[in-house]
Amino acid sequence: MKNTQILILDFGSQYTQLLARRVREANIYTEVLPFDTSIEKIKEYPLLKGIILSGGPSSVYLQNAYKIDSEILNLDIAILGVCYGMQLLTQYFEGAVELADEQEFGKAIITIDDKKNSLFKNVNTDSQVWMSHADHVTKLPVDFKQIAHSNASIAAIAHNTKPIYGIQFHAEVTHSLQGKEMLENFLYDIAKCNKDWNLDDFIDQQIKEIKEIVKDKQVILGLSGGVDSSVAAAIIGKAIGKQLTCIFVDTGLLRKNETIEVMKAYETNFDINIKLVDASDLFFSELKGIKEPEAKRKVIGKCFIDVFTDVARQHKDADFLAQGTIYPDVIESSSHGASSKTIKSHHNVGGLPEDLKFKLIEPLRNLFKDEVRQVGFKLGLPEEMINRHPFPGPGLGIRVIEEVTKEKVEILQEVDAIFIKKLREWNLYNSVSQAFVTLLPVKTVGVMGDNRTYDYVVALRSVNTIDFMTATSTHLPWEFLDEVVNEIINKVDNVNRVVYDVTSKPPGTIEWE
Asked: Where is the GMPS ATP-PPase domain positioned along the sequence (predicted)?
C-alpha cells in the first residue's frame, strides 16, 4: 500500500497482528510481512519509516532459527525488536542470548535505566509489562546500551548512534500498562511517522476494491448472524447491493431462537438477498460419538462446507465467495508456514471444493473484533447487532464439552438464554466483552424438594478484553450471580449445579474448547 510507513516482520508471535493493530490505532498504516522478506521487497515501500521485528516461539541460537536479510539493518530507518526481535538484534550485533535460569512469563516490573531515552518519554521509572520468554540476553550487543531491566533480564536496549531498539517484553498487549506510550514514542519520536490512516479510509478503500474486483458479477456469503459476517455483508452490500446473496445455515448449534432473530434482523436492516437452510439434523448425526474438541471443529466445519457447497452449486452465476473472516480466525487457524503454532482450527478459513472456482473476498481479514465493530457503526448498523458478544464459528458444538447431542444443546440453549437475559436486565451486557455458558460432561448429586438429583453441571463464563488476544474474567456482582443460578436451577431441567470460571487468557483460552 502506498502509504505504508511501518513494516512488521513476522517471526510467528501470537501477538503479531495485535502489534499491527496498535500501530494502526496510532493512525499509521502498517503491513505484516514474513520474516524472510528480502531487502529488495522492502525497498519497494517509498514511505517506509521503520521496521518492527515481532516476537516468536523459537530461539535465535538454534541451527534453523529464523533470520532476516542483514541488509535491513543498514537501512536509514528506525528498527524495533520485540522479544525474539530483540534477541535477534543482539545476535546480529555480536551480543549473546542463552536459555534463562529464571524464565519470565506474565506480568513483570521493569525499571528504566535511561530516563532521558526517547523510547521512555512519559513512562514511569517502574512500569508493569508483559513478559513471555525462556531466553534472555547475557551479553550486550556491540555499540548498544541497556536502557531498562527487570529482576531477571535486560528488558530494553538501544544502539548508541542508530535508531535501533530492542524490548524483551510485549508492549502491544494491554497488560503492559504503558506499552502504548512506548510504541507511540517509537512511531512518532524515533521513526518520525505521520498520522495518515484511519478506519474511514479503510472502509472507502474496501468498497472501492470490491467494486473494482466484482464489477457486474454475483457474490455469495456464508452468514452466521454474528458481528463479523454482519459487517462483512454490510460493507459488501454497500459496494454491490443485490449482487450479494447471503446463505444462512441453521446448524442446530445456535443460541435459543437465533434463527428467527437473525432472519428478522437481516430482512429489516439489509437490502440484500438472503436464503435460510436448515441442516440441524445433519450436524447432530455427524457429531454422534465425537468427543475431542479439534475433531468436533473439523466435523462441524466439514458439514458447514458440505451444506454451503450444495447451496452454492445452485448459484451458478456467482463468481465470488465472501467471508466474515477476521484476524483472530486466521491467527488461530494457520501455522503461518514454520514460524507459529496452531491453536485451533476455524471453519471460516478454506476448505471449499476447488471445482467451485470461487474467488475469495474477505474485507475484514486484517481487523480485530473491536475494529470490526467500529466499522459496523460507521456503516450505520444497529447497536444490538454490532454489540452482540462473539459467537464461535462451530457454535454450541464447542460449548458442549465432549459428545454433542440435541438434548445437551437444548439444555445449554436454555441456560445460556437465562444468563444473557439477566446480563441485559442488570445493564451488564455491554460492559462485558463476552459471556456464555459451557455444559460440562459430568453429573453431580443434588437435592431438590427433598429428592436426590443426579444432573449436569454448567459453567458460566464472562471476560473483559480489548483485543481478544488477552482477557481477564469479569468480576460480576455476587448478587447477580446468585440470581442467575437460582433461575437456572429452578427453570432448566437436568441441571443441578452452576460454577463460575475465573480463568484469564493466557493461560486459558476464552472458550473451553
From this structure: 197-388
* pTM summary value: 0.69
Provide DSSP, 463-484: EE-SSSSSBEE----HHHHHHH
pLDDT in the model for residue 330:
64
Residues belonging to the binding site for ATP are: 224-230
**Any domain includes 197:** no
Tell me the average pLDDT across 426-431: 95
Q: Looking at the predicted structure, is the pLDDT value of residue 314 above 60?
A: yes
Domain that holds residue 496: 399-501
Residue where a domain stops, chosen among 136, 157, 190: 190
**Would residue 83 show up in a list of annotated catalytic residues for this protein?**
yes
Catalytic: which of 133, 159, 170, 347?
Answer: 170
Best CA proximity match to 230, nearest among 398, 363, 397, 356 = 363
Alpha-carbon distance of 289 to 405, in angstroms, equals 9
Q: Where does the pLDDT of residue 318 fall: very low under 50, low under 70, confident under 90, or very high at 90 and above?
A: confident
Query: CATH number of the domain that 100 lies in?
Result: 3.40.50.880
pLDDT tens digits along 451-472: 778 899 999 999 998 777 788 9
Task: Say how many residues make up the chain.
Answer: 513
Beta bridge partners of 443: 456
- Give yes or no: residues 212 and 147 share one domain: no
Q: Does 512 reside within a domain?
A: no
Instruction: Print burial letters for 41-54: b (CB count within 10 Å at least 16), e (below 16).
Output: ebeebeebbbbbbb
Model pLDDT, residue 433: 93
In contact, 203 and 375? CB cutoff 8 Å:
yes
Instruction: With cut-offs at 50, 70 and 90, classify the pLDDT of residue 351.
Output: low
Catalytic residue flag (residue 246) = no
CA angle (33 as vertex; 30, 35 as ends), nearest 5: 130
Q: Which residue(s) pair with 438 in the sheet? A: 459
Q: Catalytic: 336?
A: no
- Among candidate residues 461, 462, 229, 511, the one with its CA nearest the CA of residue 344: 511
Q: What is the DSSP letter of 81?
A: E
Read off the pLDDT band of 345 (50, 70, 90): very low
Question: CA separation (Å) from 466 to 274, 365, 420?
Answer: 32, 18, 20
Residue ranges at the known binding site: 224-230
- Which of 104, 133, 159, 172 is catalytic? The answer is 172
